[in-house]
Each structure stands twice: as structure tokens, then as C-alpha cells.
Write a structure and sequence with these properties.
It contains eleven helices and ten strands. With 279 residues, the chain is an alpha+beta fold. Strands 1-2-9-4-7-10 form a six-stranded antiparallel sheet. A four-stranded antiparallel sheet has the order 3-8-5-6, with no helix packed on it. β5 and β6 form a beta hairpin. It is globular, with a radius of gyration of 22 Å. The N and C termini lie far apart (45 Å).
Length: 279
């Protein structure tokens, strides 16, 4: 089993698991250390948990409950890959769960969950500007809602809460050159990360991480148009920790590389005209 930690926050951590076990390997008992949701993105395996046996395939979800013992088997194929979210007790409590949904062991591929699982994988691959901790919270909330059959309550609409979201957005924009995560922004707002994510998204229409990335892109675009600093310097100055990620993200947003965007801002409009002609 190869495990790679992708992010680790106070309320949630995310890991990539790749198992190479096959029919010839002897299964063994394991124990869940916390609440968890593991999205099966490839392969399959069997699961013995709480006196039940389930076959999990791509799109299925393995659910962990603290203290539960489970055994995975690989009788049919060799290997599987999972994107796993480990969820802290504060977040579980904030979701408003009675406990029962987390004891189901596993759920089959459900449309409400597979779309979020694939979005989470996209975020893990760096192809989406939503944060992995954000989509993890959304996935956990949606899982509890679907399994319990209880739709979530509408989010807050009080003027004070809306102002809190706006003020935090202004803080994110002013500090977007720094490394800001969901916990940092929630602390600035003075509420839990779970409630902050819901509030911010409902008030402003984007997640905090999406707003952070777009703030960085906005500042980068202005710098590219206004000064002659090297592209690498601009990428790091506005908050991107990786140059290739900046070039890829900026190119996806602008339809042109940072260098070509700079050239277009200096009068070479043919770059964007060619872009429009392709559509």
C-alpha cells in the first residue's frame, strides 16, 4: 500500500492510497482511527465490516467510523486506488450528524457522490481551482445528507453574516500573496471552517480557495500588463508557489500564456484575435 498525504489541516486531511494487493494476498484486519470517506477511483475490492460484506468498484465510497474494524479483500482484480478524506470530530459535529450514516461501512456509486468524487480528484490533480479541503467538506456534508435522507438547512442570510463573508473576501484579496488556507480564512471570519465555507460560497458564489486563486490571477494580470518584471517573479510575488502551476492556471483562464498575455497588453492584439477565431 502506497500512501501520499496531499494536505493536512486541523479539521480535515486528504491522502492518496494505491493498493497493489491481489487474489493471492492474505487479507488482514484493520481499524478506522477516525471518521473518513474514501472515494474509489480505480479498481475494486471487497469489504468486511460490521458483519456485512460489500463489493466496492470505481465510484463506490468506503466510510470509516472511529474504532470499527474492517478487512479488505482482493478476490477478483489486482489493486485499487482511493482518494481518502479523514475528518476531525469538530467537522463531523458541525455537519450535524447523528452518527448512523458513518456506520454504514460503504455506499455504492451514487450520482450525488460520484460527481463530487471526480471533482475532488480533479482538485487533487491540480486541474480545478477548488481546494481539496473545501471539496472534502462538501463531500462529507452531501454524504450525510444522502444517507440520512435529511436535506441540509438553508444557509444564513442575516446582514451580519453576509458582511462577514464580504469582509473576509476583502482580507483574502489583500493577503492573496500569502499562503492562505480554509482554516486561516475561517479564523479571520471568527467561525468554524465548515460554516465559513458554506457562508462564503452562498454569499459570493465561489469557494474561498477559488476566490484566492482568482485574486492572484487578477493581480498577476495587472503586473503583466503594467511592468516588465520576469514572469517567474510575478508568479511568486502574487502567491503561486509553483511556476508551472501559475503558467497552467493563467493560460487556462486567459486563453494565452503569461508571456503572450503581456505581449497582447502591449499592442499585439492578434494573439487574442487568433484565439477568438478558433471558436
Amino acid at each position: 500500500m502506497n500512501a501520499t498525504t496531499l494536505i493536512e489541516r486541523r479539521f480535515i486531511s486528504v491522502s492518496d492510497f494505491r493498493c497493489s494487493a491481489g487474489p493471492g494476498d492474505t487479507p488482514f484486519a484493520e481499524q478506522h482511527r477516525c471518521h473518513s470517506i474514501s472515494y474509489v477511483r480505480k479498481g475494486s475490492f471487497g469489504l468486511h465490516c460490521r458483519g456485512k460484506f460489500s463489493e466496492l468498484v470505481a465510484g463506490s465510497v468506503l466510510i470509516g467510523h472511529p474504532g470499527d474494524e474492517y478487512t479488505c479483500t482482493h478476490e477478483h482484480v489486482c489493486g485499487d486506488e482511493c482518494l481518502s478524506f479523514f475528518i476531525g470530530p469538530e467537522l463531523v459535529e458541525a455537519i450535524g450528524d447523528s452518527g448512523a450514516p458513518w456506520q454504514v461501512g460503504a455506499v455504492p456509486p451514487l450520482p450525488e457522490l460520484v460527481v463530487l468524487g471526480e471533482l475532488a480528484q480533479s482538485a487533487a490533480d491540480g486541474s480545478s481551482d477548488i481546494g481539496l479541503d473545501e471539496i472534502g467538506q462538501v463531500l462529507a456534508s452531501r454524504f450525510v445528507e444522502v444517507v440520512s435522507g435529511k436535506p441540509r438547512k438553508p444557509g444564513p442570510d442575516a446582514a451580519r453574516d453576509r458582511r462577514r463573508a464580504v469582509e473576509t473576501a476583502l482580507w483574502i484579496d489583500a493577503n492573496s500573496h500569502r499562503q492562505i488556507n480554509l482554516d486561516d480564512a475561517a479564523a479571520q471570519a471568527g467561525i468554524s471552517p465548515f460554516h465559513f465555507l458554506r457562508l462564503f460560497s452562498e454569499v459570493l458564489g465561489v469557494t474561498p480557495h477559488q476566490y484566492l486563486v482568482r485574486s492572484r490571477l487578477r493581480h498577476a494580470a495587472r503586473r503583466l500588463a503594467d511592468d516588465d518584471s520576469p514572469v517567474t517573479d510575478i508568479a511568486y510575488d502574487v502567491g503561486f508557489a509553483d511556476l508551472s502551476n501559475f503558467v497552467r492556471t493563467f493560460g487556462r483562464a486567459a486563453g494565452a500564456s503569461p508571456l503572450k498575455f503581456r505581449q497582447a497588453s502591449r499592442g499585439k492584439r492578434k494573439i487574442f484575435q487568433e484565439r477568438l477565431a478558433l471558436h
